[in-house]
Amino acid sequence: MNKNISQKYRACQNQKLHVAVIGTVGVPACYGGFESLVDNLLDFTPPNVEYTVFCSGKKYEKRLDSYKEAKLVYLEMDANGKESIFYDFKSMKLSVAANADIMLVLGVSGCVFLPYIRRIFKGKIITNIDGLEWRRDKWKWYAKKLLKFSEKMAVKYSNIVIGDNKGITDYIKSEYSKIVQDKRVELIAYGGDQVSRVHDDSLFEKYPFCREPYSVTVCRIEPENNIHVILEAFSKMPDEPLVFVGNWEKSEYGRLLKEKFSTCKNIHLLDPIYEPHIVNWLRSNARVYIHGHSAGGTNPSLVEAMNLSLPILAFDCVYNRATTEEKCLYWKIPDDLQNLMKKLCHSESDSESLREKIAREMGEAGKRLYSWERIARQYNELY
User: Fold this and answer.
1) What pLDDT was estimated at residue 31?
2) Residue 142, domain extent
3) Which of 11, 296, 340, 366 is most buried, with most CB under 10 Å away?
4) Where are the alpha helices (DSSP H) in the chain?
5) How far apart are CA 93 and CA 77, in angstroms?
């Protein structure tokens, strides 16, 4: 073990309950959902709790000793991809060496090692399994098998298992019915109330196509997010503008779609935008939010759209229906999406009132269910 890391990690030991956070790129958050989760949990740290957050040294040029009173420990490894398994394992070993009271494990990548960790760690292990990662098409068959095994180990060797959606917790209880009999399976979603509506007319100069009513989508460009379905539908609606923000160059799937649909004058394909001000402006001014995620549980971008009180058209799956309390409109194929857009935006009689009704109900549900204060309180109660 690196002596300096070990000494730094032990230095945070005191009378407080010591929670080690494992599995994220790190904080301050500038990447995915788990990073935002941790960043917001730190805002509501109870007085009897002290966090240590493991961070990928490869992603942070500026390294902080602490952030929001949490200790930061940097590992010279990638938190995602092939190295994620060993990144998590090393974080677990350092947590054991430092006598942490609790391991909060976010994601199942490193859980393949939990049978060993459980033998040497006497504290509490809380694991958020983060949806059903092994089902994603981007993984090869052997990676899927490893992720499925890691998921099983997470359920078997954790004291508490967290699912972020009722569809996920129901799956855990059904798939691992023999294992979870003496386990706690908790439903804790994500918060979304850190977003707020943005009014900034200066951005129309950069995005002039947003002067007209448009729909918007913001997501990773992966097959499970039904990018192809959304683009196919809007390619057949030339008078219906779509602004689509995503990492188009990340995969062959994205590059092919960009090449195919970039010629459609009503479809505006934007590369990733990392300025929250601009992303929230694009969403705030949209007439409709299109949500295509089908894998995983409660999606952060969906609860953020709900907190912005946007009318939402979501892919029809158990996770999205649970998140939205079945109060928005749902689609599966391009024809569905076309028909819903016509109903929501172009019906002469009641389309505006329907949009307003969905927007109001999404806003009410978002504020009631997906506030970070509420989410943090649920996590704190597990410690």
Assistant:
1) 64
2) 3-191+371-382
3) 366
4) 3-10, 33-41, 84-97, 114-120, 141-157, 166-175, 227-235, 252-261, 276-284, 300-307, 318-323, 334-345, 351-369, 372-382
5) 15
- Model pLDDT for residues 206-217, shown as the tens digit of each residue: 999 999 999 999
| CATH, residue 211 | 3.40.50.2000
User: What is the CB neighbour count within 10 angstroms for residue 352?
Assistant: 12
Report the pLDDT value the prediction gives residue 156, as an integer from 0 to 100: 95
Count of domains for the chain: 2
- Record the pTM: 0.87
Answer yes or no: is 196 within a domain.
no
**247 shares its domain with 183:** no
Tens digit of each residue's pLDDT (9 = 90 or more) over 212-244: 999 999 999 999 999 999 999 999 999 999 999
**Among candidate residues 282, 198, 276, the one with its CA nearest the CA of residue 242:** 282
Distances (CA, A) of 217 to 46, 231, 274, 303: 36, 10, 15, 13
- DSSP codes joined into one string, 339-363: HHHHHHHT-TTTHHHHHHHHHHHHH
Whether residue 382 contacts residue 186, with contact meaning beta carbons closer than 8 Å, is answered with: yes
Contact between 329 and 358 under an 8 Å Cβ cutoff? The reply is: yes
